[in-house]
UniProtKB/TrEMBL annotation:
Transmembrane segments: none
GO CC list: catalytic complex; membrane protein complex; organelle envelope; organelle membrane
One GO term of the biological process aspect: inorganic cation transmembrane transport
Keyword set includes Calcium: no
Annotated catalysed reactions: a quinone + NADH + 5 H(+)(in) = a quinol + NAD(+) + 4 H(+)(out)
UniProt keyword annotations, A-Z: 2Fe-2S, Iron, Iron-sulfur, Metal-binding, NAD, Oxidoreductase, Translocase
Protein name: NADH-quinone oxidoreductase subunit E
Cofactor section: [2Fe-2S] cluster
């Protein structure tokens, strides 16, 4: 992990080559001189290689890499619920409780998940396997009620589907 995420030094020493290639790929998609445009995809890359969360050091290193003030990274990372600023479980469940999902039974789904895992929103199971989050609309209202498990959407949820889904997670 440490060698993946070398966080101090000259720009060429920040992160390892594999991570730098991923960051540079996204940075190159935006107009020259506008590195701030790449903050969101770069944060996703760093979160994915850092056990699902972003430390302050990681965000500062990204700011140095992009050549922008640290606050420009912090303000993005703290605004979006998809970014984690403290350690999370091995798997992250993001349950939408916004209006469409609520009308279609997300409260029952929430109760089922909470009972099954023994945790509430914003908590992680004692074995570190799951973190449960309550999130706003994920843009999949047509599949309400729905949740995001790690990187996959699961829609038209029922309590039976929740049992099968969670039991199937390794
Ligand atoms: S309200 Fe749940 S996905 Fe839109």
């Amino acid at each position: 992990m440490t060698e993946m995420l070398q966080l101090t030094g000259h720009k060429d020493q920040l992160f390892n080559e594999t991570v730098r290639q991923q960051l540079d790929n996204w940075i190159s998609k935006y107009p020259p001189g506008q590195p701030q445009s790449a903050v969101i995809p770069c944060l996703h890359i760093l979160q994915n290689v850092h056990e699902g969360w972003l430390s302050e050091g990681l965000m500062r290193a990204l700011a140095d890499y992009l050549g922008i003030p640290a606050i420009s990274v912090f303000e993005v990372a703290t605004f979006y619920t998809m970014f984690e600023l403290k350690p999370v479980g091995q798997h992250k469940i993001s349950l939408c409780t916004n209006i469409s999902c609520q009308l279609c039974g997300s409260q029952d789904i929430a109760r089922r998940i909470q009972k099954k895992l023994g945790i509430g929103f914003g908590q992680t199971t004692a074995d570190g396997k799951f973190t449960l989050k309550e999130v706003e609309c994920l843009g999949a209202c047509v599949g309400a009620p729905m949740l995001l498990l790690d990187h996959d959407y699961h829609e038209h949820l029922t309590e039976e589907k929740i049992d099968a889904l969670l039991d199937g997670v390794k």
